[in-house]
Each structure stands twice: as structure tokens, then as C-alpha cells.
Design brief:
alpha+beta, seven-stranded mixed β-sheet, two-stranded antiparallel ribbon, Butyryl-CoA Dehydrogenase, subunit A, domain 2, Butyryl-Coa Dehydrogenase, subunit A, domain 1
Length: 400
């Protein structure tokens, strides 16, 4: 019988068998280190202070996470200076950034942009990302869904023009505006799909003349969005044709799958906070958590969070192994985790009573991260509709 090796789980498994979704010792050790860093450098009062001050990405924290802990290079092979780990480890880090509502471009740079570049062999960019010297962002709207089989080819908003005198070989001039890009404000490099035939993915210096990044007012201030405008900006191709299409599709799919783990982390944090609070808060000389109505509500949240964990872990395992079931696993995980995170965050606010509605309490940070994350890279309803196509079922009605 043919076997495939799982670098994150113990041992090997038969091809087509269900992967071991339990966390390995290495994953738990990685979690502990990341959680300690975020607790020390990004406690919720510090996150709230950044939101109050209108500051976006916490770049010192990102440098510590990316360079000092090496999380930026988890998905980069050792030949380019990375850790050579898998999406299972990347998902564990995402769980912790979700729990802490950390103001770092981990998802957009270390997962999405890195995945887009993985097959390019661009040693300069991959080495810079692995070392934490560079931060990148895929210049695609954060609402963009992973592609669904059979869907029409996408048109990208950036036009491709001819090079000018002095431009290097293969360089093109790019013009256009991409709206709602996550991670663009912190990026040193933008990866831009050009609307040409064949499709090309270009690397653009985010600080070059002609590049404008206009911050947007978004629901989640801990993950800033921006409109990116390019005005005759030179771009160097890093992938062409089918390779470029696969790179963008893989980046969106990996982003949605790892975002599911981030949403699960936020949901789990909401549940833990709420359970702890209802044990301590007393009314009528009893902990409010002893009231049956609250027990039932928290039990519903626990069920949703537990199911979300399984879905997120399966998506991460499929991504790690390049499993053919990856599109199904990612669609299922994004839908389940998006709904679970919003439910857990709403109940967190409600069951904290009066204090849960205040700006001084972290519940609103988790609620905003949960809601914005559920809408990013495809809403739960859109992923359920995609799932129906993938498994050949009648699609449900799409509400958003």
C-alpha cells in the first residue's frame, strides 16, 4: 500500500486516509512560544491603545514574530533560509494571532504572499521574507474568494504597459487601482496580478514612485486595509501564464484555509473568556454561569468551536499534504469557522453584560476580528455555495 509522509503528525498514513488532526509536540511547542511572545508584547490593553491612537500594524511585534521566532519563514524551504515547515505549523501561529487580535501582517505576508512566491524560485524575495527583512502582500482585494472549478477566468484591475528605457529584461509598467488590500500598508513588496495575456504576477517595490497606498476605514482596525494605486510603476514578473494563475489561486486558497484557523483561535478565546467570567460574576448569591439558560448558550458555542477546530485542522492538513480534497476542506473550514467565530464573539459580548459593551473591554476587538474575518476571502455563505459545486450538490442561497 502506498503511504505518504506527514511532516507534522506522527508517522505515516495510507494515501487517501484521514490525517491525524491532533497537534504534534512540535506544534504545541511552537504555540507556547508564540503565545508567550504575544502575551508579553501584545496584551489586549496594548492592542486597544494602538486602535485608540489610530496606528495600524505593530511593526516591532511583527519583527519579533517574523525574524526572531522565524514565523515568517515557516512555509519557505530551508534552501532559501526558511524553516521548511508546513501549513499545519502556519495554522497554529494563526490561531494565536487570532486569539490575541495581533496587529501583524502574518496572514498576508507569511502565508498568502509566501504561497504565491513558493514556486517562483525567486531566491532574493524568498530569502528576504524568510529572514524577516521583507514583508509582502498580494495585491488582491481581501474579499476575493479562492477560485471555484468551472468558474470564468478572472479579470484583474491592473493594466500592463510596455517598459520604458532603462527598465530591466521582462519589466512591464503597471497602472490601475486595487481596492481593499490587506497587508499593503506594512508591505515592502506588492505581488500584483496583471490583466494581460498571458497572465503574469509582478513584484513591485511598494515604496516606488507612482505607488499610492490609501488607508481605508475598516471594521477591524487591527487588520488595516488600503486601496493600492499604481501609476506607470515598473513591475518584475515572478510567474507567467498557468504558473501565475496557479500561484494566485494557491495564495487565495491557503489564505482562506489559514484564516479559518485564525477565526477558530478567536472563537476559542471568546469561549474561554466568557466561561471564566460567568463563573466569577454573581447574581442572587449564585454564579451566573449556574443559570440553565446561560449553560445552554455556552454549550451551543462550545459545539460550534469544537466543530470549527476539526474543520480548521483538516484544512491545514490538506494544505500541508497537497491533498486533492483541499478545495473542499478549505471551503468547509472557512464557512464553519466564520460562523463559529461570530457566534462566540457575539455571545462573549452579550454574556459579559454591561462591561462587555464598553470600549475598555477586549470583547469588541474579538467581535470585529471575527466579523471581518468571516467576510474576508469569501463569506460563509459563498463558501457553502462553492462547497455545493465542489461536491456536486444544489447550491444554497447566497446572502452575502
Amino acid at each position: 500500500m502506498t503511504t505518504t509522509t506527514d511532516s507534522s503528525a506522527q508517522g505515516t498514513r495510507s494515501a487517501g486516509a484521514i490525517p491525524d488532526l491532533r497537534y504534534s509536540d512540535a506544534e504545541e511547542q511552537l504555540r507556547a512560544v508564540v503565545r508567550d511572545l504575544l502575551a508579553d508584547r501584545s496584551p489586549w490593553p496594548a492592542v486597544l491603545a494602538r486602535v485608540d491612537a489610530g496606528e495600524a500594524d505593530d511593526l516591532p511585534l511583527w519583527r519579533a514574530l517574523a525574524a526572531d521566532l522565524g514565523c515568517a519563514g515557516l512555509l519557505i524551504d530551508e534552501g532559501h533560509g526558511g524553516a521548511g515547515a508546513s501549513y499545519r505549523e502556519a495554522a497554529v501561529v494563526a490561531e494565536e494571532t487570532g486569539r490575541a487580535t495581533a496587529c501583524v501582517p502574518y496572514l498576508t505576508s507569511a502565508v498568502m504572499a509566501t504561497t504565491a512566491l513558493a514556486g517562483s524560485g525567486d531566491g532574493e524575495l524568498l530569502g528576504g521574507l524568510a529572514a524577516g527583512r521583507l514583508t509582502a502582500a498580494l495585491a488582491v482585494g481581501f474579499a476575493e474568494m479562492p477560485p471555484v472549478p468551472g468558474a470564468a477566468a478572472r479579470r484583474w484591475p491592473v493594466r500592463v504597459g510596455p517598459p520604458e528605457d532603462g527598465d530591466g529584461p521582462g519589466v512591464a509598467r503597471l497602472s490601475g487601482t486595487v481596492t481593499g488590500v490587506a497587508g499593503a500598508l506594512a508591505a515592502d513588496v506588492l505581488l500584483v496580478p496583471g490583466d494581460g495575456v498571458p497572465l503574469r504576477l509582478y513584484a513591485v517595490d511598494a515604496t516606488a514612485a507612482g505607488v499610492t497606498r490609501a488607508p481605508l476605514v475598516s471594521l477591524d482596525a487591527t487588520r488595516p486595509l488600503a486601496d493600492v494605486t499604481l501609476d506607470n510603476v515598473p513591475g518584475r514578473p515572478v510567474a507567467t501564464g498557468e504558473e501565475a494563475a496557479r500561484a494566485v489561486a494557491a495564495a487565495l486558497t491557503a489564505g482562506a484555509g489559514v484564516l479559518a484557523s485564525e477565526l477558530f483561535g478567536a472563537a476559542e478565546q471568546c469561549l474561554e473568556m466568557t466561561v471564566s467570567y460567568v463563573k466569577e460574576r454573581h447574581q442572587f448569591a449564585r454564579p451566573v454561569g449556574s443559570f440553565q439558560a446561560l449553560k445552554h448558550r455556552l454549550a451551543d458555542v462550545w459545539v460550534a468551536v469544537t466543530q470549527a477546530r476539526a474543520a480548521a485542522r483538516y484544512a491545514a492538513a490538506c494544505l500541508a499534504e497537497g491533498d486533492p480534497d483541499t478545495p473542499v476542506a478549505v471551503a468547509l473550514a472557512k464557512a464553519a469557522c466564520g460562523d463559529a467565530a461570530v457566534l462566540a464573539a457575539q455571545e462573549c459580548v452579550q454574556l459579559h453584560g454591561g462591561i462587555g459593551f464598553t470600549w475598555e473591554h477586549p470583547a469588541h476587538l474579538l467581535l470585529k476580528r471575527a466579523k471581518s474575518g468571516s467576510m474576508a476571502l469569501g463569506t460563509p455563505d459563498r463558501h457553502r455555495a462553492a462547497l455545493a459545486v465542489l461536491v456536486d450538490l444544489p447550491p444554497p442561497p447566497v446572502r452575502g
